[in-house]
Amino acid sequence: MGANLSAFFSGLTWSDRSNWSSGSSSLQSKPSLGDLPEGCVALVLGYLDPPEICKLARLNRAFRGASWADFVWESKLPYNYQILVTKVFGELPGDLGKREIYARLCRTNTFDGDTKKVWLHKSTGGVCLSIASKGLAITGIDDRRYWNHIPTEESRFFTAAYLQQIWWFEVDGEVEFPFPMGTYSLFFRLQLGRTSKRFGRRVCNTEHVHGWEIKPVQFQLWTSDGQHAASKCFLNETGKWNYYHVGDFVVDNNNSPTQIKFSMTQIDCTHTKGGLCLDSVVIYPSEFRERLKRF
Questions:
Q1: pLDDT by residue (tens digit) across 49-77?
Q2: Which residue numbers delimit the F-box domain (predicted)?
Q3: DSSP string across 47-110
Q4: Is residue 24 situated within a structural domain?
């Protein structure tokens, strides 16, 4: 139903919309959308996705007023949005409407010492979370012979961990967060090679890239309720950020936080490996899994 309504309204000309908004003389004798009670309009908007609601709010006064109805936006917010608000913001003004709460949660919100970012997907309301490389436990990170933190505009955090060379490669992390009920996928965002700008063009230096084709990297995750997932993968594509899928986990309780531990290892010490950029770990609703794999 939402798709049909959206298709109908998107086909309206600006002349139609102007007539409905102003009540032109040619239409005064006939009922129009501008005559609909605001409450009825709000009921219709409840079937649409948030971007469609905001688009239709420009039609006329009735649609604009209906687009702010709390019950419309409460149906778009996660069931445990109040817990999310407390986790991310600490506290919000008590008179804040549900639409404004939704809008604030859709922004990229930083917490936990600027090492984590969380936001709602604007269309679906799904919770997405990203953990910076500085929020992970990386073996050898304090020794500049092995690792360096480098600035980059290609990261949400504007920094990434760059590995020059190491024998024992191990990255661990954990997060505890009140994810709403659903299935989630966890990824490492990685790139072989170090990118920079030269004369305004993106270039990738791959001189340190080696060792990843000999043995696969192992990824694992564990949850506080006993779930476990593991995968293996050779790293072989240079000059491009890729999302490496670790596994999925299910949240079946809206009222308590879920703790997730995860790791990425290649600890075969018969050879060194290097030239890897580690940006972040991301957790998305699993419905986006295939989309991320294409990037």
A1: 888 888 887 877 878 888 888 888 888 99
A2: 30-76
A3: TS-HHHHHHHTTS-HHHHHHTT-HHHHHTTS-TTHHHHHHHHHS---TT--HHHHHHHHHS-EE
A4: yes
